[in-house]
Design a protein that fits this description.
CATH architecture of the largest domain in chain B: 2-Layer Sandwich
Number of domains of chain A: 2
Number of domains of chain B: 2
CATH architecture of the largest domain in chain A: Roll
Oligomer: heterotrimer
Strand order of the largest sheet of chain B: 4-5-10-6-7
Mean pLDDT of chain B: 96
Low-confidence stretches of chain A: none
Largest sheet of chain B: 5 strands, antiparallel
Shape of chain B: globular
CATH topology of the largest domain in chain B: Uridine Diphospho-n-acetylenolpyruvylglucosamine Reductase, domain 3
Distance between the termini of chain A: 54 Å
Structural class of chain B: alpha+beta
CATH class of the largest domain in chain A: Alpha Beta
Structural class of chain A: alpha+beta
Chains: A alpha+beta (160), B alpha+beta (292), C alpha+beta (740)
Number of strands of chain A: 5
Shape of chain A: globular
Strand content of chain A: 15-25%
CATH topology of the largest domain in chain A: Ubiquitin-like (UB roll)
Mean pLDDT of chain A: 97
Chain lengths: 160, 292, 740
């Protein structure tokens, strides 16, 4: 069995792992690195539950081969908080009840962070289209959109 | 299945020659679901994204050169490119969600050869060419010659697309791309329409109309082009007769199938509708200097 | 926004604390079933039927067993035969086919191996010989005279018969004189409605991790709405005593009714037993679509008679539900769901119809959306024809306390009128319909259930409390348990830890379904807390040296005249001295579940050249009785509305000619995405349920009942075309517009 040694940075930590070349980054993150916050909802890039940032860019980790991670910086939901200090998105999601079952929440937090990192003042329409790649079946999206908007407001306040 | 990440075209070429059953990939956004669905695993997956030439975008001497593995998100975020080719930019940006956009590429979208590929009608309308790596060199071909049928390309074994080239549109030229999907995002195109127009004053002097997802390969609607060329905009609008002729021609040019994404009747009918709408947008952009 | 009548003042109920399990869910720490791993675990994979109906002639597993890494293989032969009338018989056969496969995707065998890839490869190497049988897929085919049998072990329920049938149930209800009413009516509208199968669409596929020990016991961690049912169903399917199985519910990533049954757990147990290793099974998304219960497809003919002043005098409906290859009672439930209007004359004929399709499962107010789509559409057409405002028409005919449901049950106190008024008086309804758009109104009802729940509350040494229930939390119910406990105890909600415990650690509790959790489990929590309050009063009395009667419980403190009051921490600190640990348990079979009515209002526009519908504005009003945690009540209303919008506009099972599912992925099974929708405004109406200590009515389900008719009614007013077939997807709408 051919296994590749991959070295990369995940949530700020230098890590390395062995992987079969055809393994998805999603499975490598979950099974080799124990980062089970990244979820599989479909495995084919249609639901966004596996969203991660790779070198700051939003990706479905189910559509990335694990060896592609070599030398990259990856952010998962586990890396969004700073220590026990929640990111404003995590805080607004909690206060705004933007989660019910919570399975889609990691993907949404990563996607929303990617949005706000590039667009600090998105309109409701921009938020909806930016998050169109993340499926939620519980909330109807309303409270998620409001929470992202509120986090954007808070982040702009902090930036001032 | 092995993974390889060459850093040069030559290295990629060798990998393909030395490993029968190997495949190149860029974003793998079609390939991975296909393998999950039972497509035989390639012997070696050759990742083109670490070859700098395949992910660079350059604009020099009136020519755009776009690496075949360039994520389409890079193109839609390029203001100069988007200003010059707004239709091609929006077509590229419609290939999936933001997650997909950071992986999808013109090379992948073209060579996956889905009849519903969003970027292909607009690339052809813009007169794009591709530079192809052959077993001992390169060759150039128009994009319109690459796809020969659903999932089929004219590329020989071991060949792969290195880059796309586009010349700057002449003054008074712009384009638009519209598609029909059931939701507002995340769907494969049921019909796609790319229209490119050139204006001199109020008169349309050149037109390119291409439809996707309505036939095994993209379809040129020559009668719609003919109706447009020579017609004059009236208060910035294409006249009703021309639009009606265009819509009829677009519907007639379709050779669609019934599938889980649309019926033959539906595709024919809305092909006419979005061709008209895309032409109106292209005309508006060309008139208002959106291309320069 | 809430509209409410004489609300009591609560200190904790009605507030919006952060849910106690929230921190884990926003940091990725929360453990769903697929996140759990046991040392040495194997992975399980299935072989599924390629035929919609076939006899299994032989199964040869030898090639699979010989493959490297394969540790066990199971087929139907590994499970006991249950009698056809055993309540778990159908579940058992659905878990693993016996001598016949009944739908495309039906489980035929399963393999446990060291890796998922090895298990899948081995499953594919199992050789099965099939003898195809005639397969039926539609209601018409299955109900036709002389139709072949879909499932030879199905007998129509509630009737004496030795003959197997393609009918699960046949229901006939009648009251008044329907024919006379129709003959004398001023207006009669009759329409036939069809809906396609739709899937619950939870984002988390089914998953379980199972360990079996040499002691003959099994531990199951799974994604489920009801772990006690997982225990009992799994035990029955295996032929085991219930006490041999312990089930721990993992966090669940959505259920909506689809996870109230079992699919994989008995298979994982048998694979684990045979291999002597733990086994993890995670369904792929494709398997979820192919082989887990969608909601039934349906055909409903509804005929309504009215007087010219808008009195609805008669309903005559024929309803058929396509429930897949096993028996069920969807038709009966559909009939039970007809309850919104007085209808002095009523006739319902309802069928549950079997076909060679996956076994349908509950989906939020099962069967009600189908019936409401039909009846609310016809009622709207009557309103249009009589030129009466659709809310006024409903106000005139709305059921109130004492009116009879179609089943002949008198309504208790209900809030339908209040919901209609809430929409009528809402900012949305009072605002003009936007240019180019149209507005639709529809209502919905769900009866809600009570059933059994247990709860235990412990007072910890530091004066905090732990509240333990057996209700898997699918939408924030732990927060509601904590709020009800806080209110009853007089203890700050942040000093309460709500937990969901496994089947060995909490008393028997029925499944999280039927919108019962806040109602029935809440009732058990309140009862346990009241007992704890009495116990704390008694301990305080002891500490104070006064009679129990002298001690009152006020705002979380024991108060007696002439004594310093004692707060909960003080009482807790003296627990050992005053009698020992402080704890209370309650178990009950809750009755008096209050129905929840809803009224929805939608503004939308239709692109008449392409058939696309754009929802511009949506408001859902629903009676919650008392909203314990308003944010999570709003969430239920919004989630149900959007599922209904998806059902209305784009979701459908598309079958190939061979009965296999053509669109078994989220790419082509099109649930709403964020960009499809506007905000979903909510109005929580509070007509307290007199049977619950805090007036609670379940709210989880009703929200999905109105949307399809709400949108169809708006599209009718936008285009002049009455759509009677779902989904109202662009091609379907355009085709109807062309016919205009």
């Amino acid at each position: 069995m051919n296994r590749t040694h991959v070295s990369c940075t995940v949530n700020g930590d230098e890590v390395d792992f062995l992987t079969a070349d055809g393994t998805s980054l999603l499975d490598a993150l979950r099974d080799e690195l124990g980062l089970t916050g990244v979820k599989e909802g479909c495995g084919t890039g249609d639901c966004g539950a596996c969203s991660v940032l790779i070198d700051g860019k939003l990706n479905c980790s189910c559509l990335v081969f694990a060896p592609e991670a070599e030398g990259t910086e990856i952010l998962t939901v586990e890396g969004i908080a700073e220590g026990d200090h929640l990111h404003p998105l995590q805080q607004t999601f909690l206060e705004g009840a933007a989660l019910q079952c919570g399975i889609c929440t990691p993907g949404f937090l990563v996607a929303a962070k990617a949005l706000l990192d590039h667009n600090p003042d998105p309109s409701e329409t921009e938020i909806r289209y930016a998050l169109a790649g993340n499926l939620c079946r519980c909330t109807g999206y309303d409270k998620i959109i409001r929470s992202v908007h509120e986090a954007a407001v808070q982040l702009r306040e902090v930036a001032k | 299945m092995r993974y390889a990440a060459p850093t040069s075209v030559d290295e990629a070429r060798s990998l393909l020659v030395d490993n029968p059953g190997s495949r190149v990939f860029a974003g793998a956004t079609d390939l991975i679901p296909q393998i999950r669905a039972g497509l035989p695993q390639p012997s070696v997956m050759v990742d083109l994204k670490r070859i700098e030439r395949l992910t660079s975008v350059a604009h020099d001497g009136g020519v755009w050169t776009v690496g075949a593995a360039t994520p389409t998100a890079d193109l839609t975020a390029n203001p100069e490119f988007t200003a010059m080719f707004p239709g091609l930019s929006e077509a590229s940006g419609l290939i999936g969600s933001d997650q997909i956009q950071n992986r999808s590429s013109w090379g992948g979208n073209l060579c996956n050869a889905s009849p519903a590929a969003d970027s292909v009608p607009a690339l052809v309308a813009a007169g794009a060419q591709v530079v192809i790596a052959t077993d001992n060199g390169t060759r150039t071909a128009p994009v319109r010659e690459i796809v020969t049928g659903p999932g089929q390309t004219s590329l020989a074994d071991g060949e792969f697309v290195i880059e796309f080239t586009l010349t700057d549109p002449p003054a008074g030229t712009s384009d638009a791309y519209l598609r029909i999907i059931p939701r507002t995002e995340m769907d494969i195109a049921v019909v796609g329409a790319a229209v490119r127009l050139s204006l001199e004053g109020d008169t349309i002097t050149a037109a390119s109309v291409w439809l996707g997802a309505v036939a095994p390969t993209i379809v040129q609607v020559a009668e719609a082009e003919a109706a447009l060329v020579g017609s004059t905009l009236d208060n910035g609008l294409i006249n009703e007769d021309t639009l009606a002729t265009m819509a009829e021609a677009a519907s007639a040019a379709c050779n669609p199938i019934n599938d889980k994404r649309g019926t033959i009747e539906y595709r024919r009918q809305v092909a006419g509708v979005i061709t008209k709408r895309a032409a109106a947008i292209a005309a508006d952009r060309a008139l208002n200097g959106a291309s320069r | 926004m809430t509209a409410t009548e004489n609300p009591p003042t609560y200190k904790w109920i009605g507030t919006r604390p952060i849910r106690h399990d929230g921190y884990d869910k926003v940091t990725g720490k929360a453990r769903f079933a697929a996140d759990l791993d046991l040392p040495g675990q194997l992975r399980g994979a299935y072989l599924r039927s390629p035929h919609a109906h076939a006899r299994i002639v032989s199964i040869d597993t030898s090639a699979a067993e010989a493959m490297p890494g394969v540790k066990s293989v199971v087929t139907g032969a590994d499970f006991p035969e249950l009698a056809a009338k055993n309540p778990e018989h159908d579940v058992s056969v659905n878990v693993m086919a016996r001598d016949t496969v009944l739908y495309h995707g039906h489980a035929v065998a399963a393999v446990a191996a060291n890796t998922q890839e090895a298990a899948a490869a081995a499953a594919a190497a199992i050789v099965v010989e099939y003898e195809p049988l005639p397969a039926l897929f539609t209601i018409d085919e299955a109900m036709a005279e002389g139709a072949p049998l879909v499932n030879e072990t199905n007998f129509t329920k509630f009737v004496k018969s030795d003959e197997p049938s393609n009918l699960g149930t046949v229901t006939n209800l009648e009251r008044g004189d329907v024919d006379e009413a129709f003959a004398n009516a001023d207006v009669v509208i009759e329409r036939e409605f069809t809906t396609a199968s739709v899937h619950q669409g939870y984002i988390e596929p089914h998953a379980c991790v199972v360990d079996t020990g040499a002691d003959g016991k099994a531990s199951i961690w799974c994604s489920s709405q009801g772990h006690f049912r997982v225990r009992s169903s799994t035990a029955e399917v295996l032929g085991w005593d219930v006490s041999r199985i312990k089930v721990t519910p993992a966090e669940i990533g959505g259920g909506f009714g689809g996870k109230t049954t079992i699919y994989i757990e008995p298979v994982a147990v048998r694979l684990s037993e045979k291999a002597g290793r733990p086994v993890k099974i995670v369904m792929s998304r494709e398997e979820v679509f192919r082989a887990t219960g969608p909601a039934p497809a349906s055909k409903v003919r509804a005929r309504v008679a009215a007087n010219k002043d808008g009195e609805l005098i008669a309903l005559d409906a024929w309803m058929a539900y396509n429930i897949g290859a096993f028996g069920g009672i969807a038709g009966l439930i559909g009939a039970m769901s007809v309850a919104s209007y007085k209808f002095p004359n009523l006739r319902l004929e309802a069928y549950s119809v079997l076909t060679n399709r996956p076994k349908s499962a509950a989906y939020r107010s099962p069967s009600a959306p189908h019936a409401a789509f039909a009846i609310e559409s016809v009622v709207d057409e009557i309103a249009q024809q009589l030129d009466i405002d659709p809310i006024e028409l409903r106000l005139k005919n709305a059921a109130v306390e004492g009116d009879l449901t179609a089943m002949g049950m008198p309504h208790p106190r209900i809030g339908f009128i209040e919901c209609l008024e809430a929409i009528r008086d809402s900012e949305h309804y009072r605002s003009p319909v936007p240019e180019g758009a149209a507005r639709g109104i529809a209502s919905g009802f769900w009866f809600n259930i009570g059933e059994q729940s247990s709860a235990t509350v412990h007072l910890n040494e530091d004066g905090t409390a732990t509240v333990i229930t057996g209700s898997p939390d699918i939408g924030g119910s732990r927060a509601s348990m904590a709020l009800m406990a806080a209110e009853t105890l007089g203890l700050d909600v942040t000093r309460i830890t709500p937990l969901v415990a496994d089947t060995e650690s909490v008393g028997f509790t029925d499944t999280t379904e039927g919108s019962r959790t806040t109602f029935a489990t809440g009732m058990a929590v309140v009862q346990a807390c009241r007992e704890l309050v009495d116990e704390m009063r008694a301990r305080a009395a002891t500490s104070m040296g006064v009679d129990l009667d002298a001690v009152e419980w006020v705002d979380g403190e024991a108060v007696a005249e002439g004594q310093d009051s004692m707060g909960i921490p003080a009482i807790a600190a003296q627990a050992k001295r005053t009698g020992g640990p402080l704890t209370a348990t309650a178990s009950l079979n809750a009755s008096g579940a209050g129905p929840s009515f809803a009224v929805h209002c939608c503004d939308l526009e239709v692109d008449e050249e392409t058939g696309h519908t754009k929802v511009l504005r949506y408001t859902a009003a629903q009676d919650a009785g008392t909203a314990i945690h308003p944010s999570y009540v709003e969430g239920q209303l919004q989630g149900g509305s959007v599922q209904g919008i998806g059902w209305a506009l784009n979701e459908e099972y598309i079958l190939n000619d061979d009965g296999s599912l053509d669109n078994a992925s989220f790419l082509d099974y099109r649930i709403p995405v964020a960009s499809d929708l506007p905000m979903i405004d909510t109005i929580i109406v509070e007509v307290p349920n007199p049977s619950h200590p805090y007036g609670v009515r379940g709210v989880g389900e009703t929200g999905i009942v109105p949307p399809m008719a709400t949108l169809a009614n708006a599209i009718s007013r936008a285009t002049g075309v009455r759509l009677t077939s779902l989904p109202m997807s662009p091609p379907n709408v355009l085709r109807r517009l062309n016919e205009r």
